[in-house]
Amino acid sequence: MSDSPTSTSSTTTSTRVRSDALVFRNAVVVTMDATRRVLEDADVLVVGNRIEAVGPGLEVPEGTREVDAAGGIVMPGMIDTHRHMWQTALRGYGADWTLTQYFVWNYLEHGIKFRPQDIFAGNLLSGIEAIDAGVTTSVDWSHGLSTVEHAEAAVDALEAVPGRFVFGYGNIHAAPWEWTHDADFRSFLERRMPRSDMLGLQLAFDVTGDPAFPEKAAFEAARDLDVAVTTHAGVWGATNDNGVRLMHEHGFMEPRTVYVHAATLSDDSYQRIAATGGTASVSAESEASCGQGYPSSWALRRHGIGISLSVDTSVWFSADMFAAMRSTLSSDRSREHQEAHANGDTVTHLGLRARDVVEHATLGGARALGLDHLVGSVEVGKRADLVLIKNDRSPAMFPLLNPYGHIVFQAQRGDVHTVLVDGRVVKEAHELVGVDLAAARGTVGDTVAHLRSTLGEDAWVGGMNPDIPESKVLDNPYTYTDFADASTHEA
Predict the structure, then answer these.
(1) How far apart are CA 461 and CA 367, in angstroms?
(2) Do the beta carbons of residue 205 and residue 178 sit within 8 Å?
(3) Quick check: helix, strand or coil at residue 426?
(4) Backbone phi, then psi, for 384, in 5-degree steps?
């Protein structure tokens, strides 16, 4: 089977290939439409930036480019609703951090040392990485914007990458009730953020639970600007039920509000979120590792709260939505088994299915961002944000029996063959299109050199190697240390 991406669709060798039409041929199509249809040996025709037709044996306009998708899966582009893109230049640096160490490093000590060009570098690499891995829409939870110049750089980077983005403007170095009313911030929005399908806007800030509710002014700013708020909620030791209660009592919980993590909330808070139509962004790889709380999909499902997925930050984690789906499904099922065992029961039928987390990673993200009328499913009339998962060189890509299970448990970012964003081919035959990866490498290298020299070598190395706490292995009465001697005793 050939892994070649394109051929000319024509009856003669002289037919000109159209630049505005493309068809995937003979794929398994995971539509994520209202009936969750999975189509075998089906085609998906794209004309311009829209999906024109879906079905077997499609007739296509003369000159349409063809992609041989046999043996592969065509699915909606994945949607990441919470990614701190500016931190990507320090990929893997904090692999052994706790949440406390992350806060100290970024919020109290070193986050302020990021220059505008460092924000640009992180966003650029993160945006490229996202489309390479089949993530066609990303929320840039950009809370390192200490100045408007930093925000300018962040948006410059997003506009340099052929993806769909939502810019979550935030500033951890100032109070949200201050920066949301700053004249320079308002001027920036007027100049750089005319809302479009390719670049949306959210305000990104957290609610501390202070009874005075100082964040009220920031919510009022969001309402005045007619933009959604995305907030880290239910994060152990940082944000709690009081923040949710204050938002609700003051009328600031809306259907478009996104609650990131939502991992340590009470039933009362979940009920307030459900009643007001909000959605949650689950970052299971993050929550399981650094302590926001147990990954929340199990609790969210019990309360009927819409779920989307996110990767949080590659300063720690993989920034890979395949890993996000896998870790969400695994942690949810682990909790289901654990709860049953605590009651002396056995789970014989699982509640959360592979199909569900594929939905969270696609249509769930679109709903959370108010984009489900445009993207999130493979349906006629929607924008052509599409991913072909196919890798003829991988023994893990056949047989393809359960498409949802294959996406979640078998596929990985290296199996992303072709990616379209708004009808534009941004990756084909496993290679990025129109992306200068060498330039991004150089830009990121400058940022790493700047931060390393600014911190100093001791602080740089120390940041990657936090102290290991003392621990003690429990005494085991069944360890027979005299076993060898005993074997020599005479009868």
Answers:
(1) 42
(2) no
(3) strand
(4) -85, 75
Nearest in space to 307 (alpha carbons), one of 356, 355, 353, 272:
356
**C-alpha to C-alpha distance for 422 and 164, rounded to whole angstroms:** 8
- What is the phi-psi region of residue 262: left when phi exceeds 0, alpha when psi lies from -120 to 50, beta otherwise? left
**Tens-digit pLDDT profile for the chain (491 aa)?**
345 444 434 333 456 888 899 999 999 999 999 999 999 999 999 999 999 999 999 999 999 999 999 999 999 999 999 999 999 999 999 999 999 999 999 999 999 999 999 999 999 999 999 999 999 999 999 999 999 999 999 999 999 999 999 999 999 999 999 999 999 999 999 999 987 899 999 999 999 999 999 999 999 999 999 999 999 999 999 999 999 999 999 999 999 999 999 999 999 999 999 999 999 999 999 999 999 999 999 999 999 999 999 999 999 999 999 999 999 999 999 999 999 999 999 999 999 999 999 999 999 999 999 999 999 999 999 999 999 999 999 999 999 999 999 999 999 999 999 999 999 999 999 999 999 999 999 999 999 999 999 999 999 999 999 999 998 888 878 866 655 555 555 54
Choose among 21, 5, 20: nearest CA to 68: 5
Q: d(Cα 62, Cα 372) in Å, to the nearest integer?
A: 31
Vertex 77 angle, CA 73 and 80, to 5°? 130
Give dist(CA 142, CA 125) in Å, integer.
Answer: 14
DSSP string of 353-421, one letter each residue: -HHHHHHIIIIIHHHHTT-TTTSSS--TTSB--EEEE--TT-GGG-S---HHHIIIII--GGGEEEEEE
Contact 209, 239 (CB under 8 A): yes
- Residue 273 Cα to chain centre, angstroms: 21
- Contact indicator for 264, 240 with CB cutoff of 8 Å: yes
The pTM score is 0.93
Q: What angle do CA 472, 473, 474 make, to 5 degrees?
A: 110
Give the chain's radius of gyration (CA, Å): 24
Query: Of 178, 197, 200, whose CA–CA distance to 189 is shortest?
Result: 200
Cα distances from 476 to residues 66, 158, 264, 391, in angstroms, run: 65, 56, 34, 49
Phi, psi of 255 (to 5 degrees): -60, -30
